[in-house]
UniProtKB/TrEMBL annotation:
This is hydroxymethylglutaryl-CoA lyase. It is an enzyme of class 4 (lyase). Belongs to the HMG-CoA lyase family. One of its GO terms (molecular function) is metal ion binding. Keywords: Lyase, Metal-binding. The keyword Metal-binding applies. NCBIfam families: PRK05692.1 (NF004283). InterPro entries: Aldolase_TIM, HMGL, PYR_CT. CDD domains: DRE_TIM_HMGL. Its EC number is 4.1.3.4. The gene is leuA_3. Pfam families: HMGL-like.
Length: 299
């Protein structure tokens, strides 16, 4: 049976914008985040504290964090951090929730964060300790959960091993990333079965990119396994700067449309979200990749 309620984690302001070639002003980013919150999204990954040399689009992270982190709000605003330096800057702005990231693939981890998987996990130890001391909630991402741009298919047991390591370190949620959008539903099912041997279902999230147009099918497969946390990006923004050819995240509008059809609650006002998607696509000078948005806009 399918779940009755799903939590959407909107990653557009981070995963989306980190890979858009046109730069938008900090003001527009802040408006984007506010509009996303207004549409009913309860969890928003607002930026990342990474090296501006590696990802210039996130260089204004301090301004973004200071605008939203301290706010008294029912919404959860999180930040992606690669190391202790990232956590410290996030905490300095009042952020209460962060995400660390590694991968199931050695080559990808090397290119993405200049470390081996083992080194990345060791780098997270002081992050986890500090987060724990300050009551900061940590999510852990596992990239290349269904395939790697350099190594091809990924063995589900490797994904499970990295997921278990993050879980045992204290990550309260594990987000399984199909970074290059290569997976199909049967692979998703097998991968989830492997991960769920060690990570509780309630703590498991899925993060699909839509390169091959499989994201919604993969989400449906994940719902069938009982997953209740889904990552997505408004207007299907983004990609990953270290995964050539990776297209954007699954569009939040399309996920909301799917969930509405299935009678699964997510708290988002689709019409309002579609307006925001069209608005940000216009600012970026690109088309809105969300099919539901296109259909509802021309209707
Ligand atoms: P490095 O060069 O190995 O590390 O980079 P370093 O410690 O030698 O630092 C180099 C420079 O970065 C120094 O500055 C540090 O101060 C600075 P410099 O002295 O050269 O001026 N630095 C930082 N600056 C800001 N914030 C920080 C930070 N740490 C060090 N936290 C590092 C290692 C991890 C920093 C680098 O590789 C990096 O920033 N990588 C970012 C990669 C990234 O953002 N990738 C995209 C996000 S992951 C993703 O999209 C996948 C996901 O969506 C899931 C999926 O789809 O699969 C999550
Ligand atoms: Mg991603």
């Amino acid at each position: 049976t399918l779940p009755t309620h799903v939590e959407l984690v909107e990653v557009g302001p981070r995963d989306g914008l980190q890979n858009e070639s046109s730069t938008i002003t900090t003001e527009t980013k802040l408006e984007l985040i506010q509009r996303l919150a207004n549409s009913g999204l309860e969890r928003i990954e607002m930026t990342s504290v990474v090296s501006p040399r590696w990802v210039p689009q996130m260089a204004d992270h301090e301004a973004v964090m200071s605008s939203f982190a301290g706010k008294t709000s029912a919404r959860r605003y999180s930040v992606l951090v690669p190391n202790r330096q990232g956590l410290e800057s996030a905490m300095a702005q009042g952020v209460r929730e962060v995400a660390v990231f590694t991968a199931a693939s050695e080559s990808f981890t090397q290119r993405n964060i200049n470390a081996s998987i083992e080194q990345s996990l060791r780098r997270f130890e002081p992050v986890m300790r500090m987060a724990d001391e300050h009551g900061i909630n940590v999510r852990g991402y596992v990239s290349c959960a269904l395939g790697c741009p350099y190594e091809g298919q990924m063995d589900a047991t490797r994904v499970a091993d990295v997921s278990r390591a993050l879980w045992q370190m204290g990550c309260r949620e594990i987000s399984l990333g199909d970074t290059i959008g290569i997976g199909t539903p049967l692979a998703v099912k097998r991968m989830l079965e492997a991960v769920l041997r060690d990570v509780p279902l309630e703590a498991t999230a899925v993060h699909f990119h839509d390169t091959y147009g499989q994201a919604l099918a993969n989400i449906y497969a994940s719902l069938q396994e009982g997953v209740t946390v889904i990552d997505s990006a408004v207007a299907g923004l983004g990609g990953c700067p270290y995964a050539t050819g990776a297209s954007g995240n699954v569009a939040t509008e399309d996920v909301v449309y799917l969930l509405n059809g299935l009678g699964i609650e997510c708290g988002v006002d689709l019409a309002n979200l579609v307006e925001t998607g069209n608005w940000i696509a216009h600012h970026l000078g690109r088309d809105n990749s969300a099919k539901a948005a296109r259909a509802l806009t021309s209707a």
